[in-house]
């Protein structure tokens, strides 16, 4: 079980920087090219306001990260199965958070940015189902913010990648926690029957 605690701690330590990177990436999406004008005028893509990276992949992910890290430092042996059940619940929260981040980032990417074009402020790529991602020659339709397509695509792809890594980490802990929570009592019973 000590190995399981150490494994959980290493997963928590890996999860922490990923969560912080999600928060940073989402904050950068709110300020295209570092400008505050567009957030003040509500000129951001609508799905950005769902805060997939800030909420799901970031703040919500801090819970399992902290639980996994403190689990690794736990020296209490009074009920190791119960402790592992707690880590399983934290892993489920992490799976929900990373899934939310992935879905919101994907929807934002498919929708494309809101930008100023020759037709005014609009979503020029919203009806393309994401095909614009493979056609960089049409990105220049967005006149303002400058390079908004590249900005959004880069940050949203980063969020998608981070969400996948977070999901994998939480899934690993979910599996480890379930195995240890279920199998540990069986091991105790077997040891007790052998000693008896």
UniProtKB/TrEMBL annotation:
Coiled coil: none annotated. It comes from the Eukaryota. Keywords: Membrane, Transmembrane, Transmembrane helix. Belongs to the L6 tetraspanin family. The chain crosses the membrane at residues 12-31, 47-71, 83-110, 153-174. GO terms for cellular component: membrane. The keyword Transmembrane helix applies. This is Transmembrane 4 L six family member 1. It holds the Pfam family L6_membrane. InterPro entries: L6_membrane (IPR008661). It is found in: Membrane. The keyword Transmembrane applies. Its main location: membrane. It is a multi-pass membrane protein.
């Amino acid at each position: 079980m000590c190995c399981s605690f150490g494994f959980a701690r290493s997963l928590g330590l890996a999860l922490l920087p990923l969560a912080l990177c999600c928060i940073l990436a989402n904050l950068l999406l709110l300020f295209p090219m570092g400008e505050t004008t567009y957030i003040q005028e509500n000129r951001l893509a609508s799905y950005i306001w769902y805060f997939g990276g800030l909420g799901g992949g970031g703040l919500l992910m801090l819970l399992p990260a902290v639980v996994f890290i403190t689990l690794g430092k736990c020296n209490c042996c009074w009920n190791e199965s119960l402790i592992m059940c707690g880590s399983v619940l934290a892993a489920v929260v992490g799976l929900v958070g990373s899934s939310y981040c992935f879905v919101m980032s994907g929807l934002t990417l498919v929708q494309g940015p809101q930008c100023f074009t020759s037709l005014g402020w609009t979503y020029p790529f919203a009806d393309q189902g994401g095909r614009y991602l493979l056609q960089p020659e049409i990105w220049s339709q967005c006149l303002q913010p400058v390079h908004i397509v590249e900005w959004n695509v880069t940050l949203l792809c980063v969020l998608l990648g981070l969400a996948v890594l977070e999901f994998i980490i939480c899934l690993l802990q979910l599996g480890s926690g379930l195995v240890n929570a279920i199998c540990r009592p069986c091991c105790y019973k077997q040891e007790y029957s052998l000693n008896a």
